[in-house]
Amino acid sequence: MKSSEIRTAYLKFFEEKGHLIVPSSSLVPHGDPTLLLTTAGMVQMKPYFMGEANPPSRRMTSSQKCFRTTDIDSVGDPGHLTFFEMLGNFSVGDYFKKEAIAWAWELVTERFRLTKERLWITVFLDDDEAERYWRDIGVPRERIVRCGEKDCGPCSEIHYDFGKNMGCGKADCNPSCGCGRFLEIWNLVFMQFNQDEKKNRTPLPKPNIDTGMGLERITCVMQGKGSVYETDVFAPVIERISELSGRKYGESEAVTRAMRVVAEHGRAITFLIADGVIPSNDGRGYVLRRVLRRSALFGRKLGLKEAFLTEIGKTVIDQMGGFYPELVKGRDYILNVIEIEESKFEQTLNTGMNLLDEIMAETRAKSLSVISGEQAFRLYDTYGFPKELTAEIAAENGLTVDLEGFEREMTAQRERAREAARFGLADKSAEKFYESLGLPATGFVGYESFEAETRIVGIIANGEPVETAFQGQEVEVILAETPFYGEMGGQVGDTGQIKTAKGQVLVTNTLKPIESLAVHVGKVQEGIISVNDPAQARIDAERRLDIARNHTSTHLLHAALRKVLGEQVRQGGSLVAPDHFRFDFTHLIALSKEELSQVQSSVNENIRRNLPVTSRLAPQKDAIKAGALAFFGEKYGEEVRVVEIRNSTGNVSAELCGGTHLRNTGEIGFFRITSEKSVGSGLRRIEAVTGR
């Protein structure tokens, strides 16, 4: 069977068993901004297993795109992959062990027609129930192995036996042996317990099933190949690499390894870019950059001097686009990103390689075996060599890299950047100071009103808490409730006045040094103010409306950029001020005049439509599932505020946002882009003005 036929057969089999076929989720996890990449089929099912959302069906099956960063450096051997497809079937409180085991056996022996005598089973150490079900369907006791938590955990696995001629040759060899004779092809996870920090287990109200079968692995077994790279999963890509390089897979160990790396990484980068990841120096973007550059280096070992990765991308799209339409839809964009990033690396590759050769020669000349962290960091910082690539090349030449020293250099650079950016209340000592005050959380009423009757709960003057402040003193005032928005999420803080019976403060800024407190920065204009004084707080309403005009415009701009450039565009930062705003977003190249015109026209069209701008509170998982945009690295609570701009057919924009906005887009007036430029690798900035 072809790999595509195996995938279809798996999904159809479980569809016949009452499962809903659900599409693969993105490699960029939705609903969990702290998770780097999707690593298993279970990721999109987690909200259902945790009871946070209602599943579309209690029985589901999928072929899930997955990426695991832990195996990057191992790619090149016969079996390791970064990107792979995970076939899975899932039960949310419906069936359990008996059905999962019976159906797994039926599929592999009847549909896939694997020889029963080649199949071994592992079960958890004390799971008599699972062993009984396996024996009931005909698996003999001698091919069922009990494993501890390290090897098996609360699950059961099906292993394929390649035969006695493989591996260690011992008579008692079984799946618990790591000799290579046995290959795990299917993992059935029985979710029946909740385990606390002390590893005490209590039964779940409704047990769940989560299974995973690697498509590449089962294809390798069914096609009788010695490596996943010899299956039809990789055949078209390997053939294209051979055409481009003039080398043959299998002609030498070095050539075979290089072809595997280029093929595997070429497939991985194509899917990562299709799901919106762009090369950068951190997070997902760093993972993409790392595998792309590793692929480029191994291509050189095959004699591929010119840019070649776009050709690999084309082959992957042609091969996989039938099942994954996002590849076809994003074809031009994917190839463009690959071309730009490969070209960028080519510009520094020769110089960097020459420097690395010099460093290695110098290290040997000194009778040393370790490249210093400082030297490795220079290669990274100046020539774009990920530390892992430097370490890999060094290892091939009998050397190692001081990775701890590299991290010290990286930490020092980050600290320098922090020092350069640090000002006012941004540093950690300030956070500790405000936390130490023990003041109640400031209630924010500024969404509904521009003024509030409130009470002074804290005053700070000259860096110290005081009970009273006098005319002419610069102060920080904390109120019980406030209409003042504290600087946060790119939006500047409000200004205005705080009045008491005996005094008045001119507020020149509002900050949020810690999440719970709004700090009103200003000067006592008249009289005196004291802690516990009743007060009237009033913001500069006209300035607030200008800020809201620009903030609502950032949401329209974000939507327009995704419409014109593609849904891979993500916000990278913003500044929302009363007289202008800037918006940073992920994109590799400058926008053309036509693209800028389309973006500006799209925003102004939605302004003319006078669309309603609404906000609501919702559970974070529900908001993300409904399509609201969240941003990687941001911390969100269980309940979030969703700002939506809707037309007659649905959402024009939906984002998690705590900022202040207009009631409708017509209040913006007019939107004009004043500049567009690069502010970093893969990051562009638009500056714009609105209204008057």
Describe the structure.
The model is unreliable at 420-428 (pLDDT under 50). The protein contains 18 helices and 27 strands. The chain starts with a helix and ends with a strand. The chain is globular and about 95 Å long. Strand 7 and strand 8 (201-214) form a beta hairpin. The protein has four domains: 3-225, BirA Bifunctional Protein, domain 2; 234-419; 428-539, Beta Barrel (Elongation Factor Tu (Ef-tu), domain 3), CATH 2.40.30; 544-690, Threonyl-tRNA Synthetase, Chain A, domain 2 (2-Layer Sandwich). The strands form six sheets. It has an eight-stranded mixed beta sheet with strand order 1-2-3-8-7-6-4-5. A six-stranded antiparallel barrel has the order 12-15-19-18-17-20. A four-stranded antiparallel beta sheet has the order 21-22-27-26, covered by helices on one side. The protein is an alpha+beta fold. Helix 7 (253-274) crosses helix 11 (331-365) and helix 11 runs antiparallel to helix 12 (373-383).
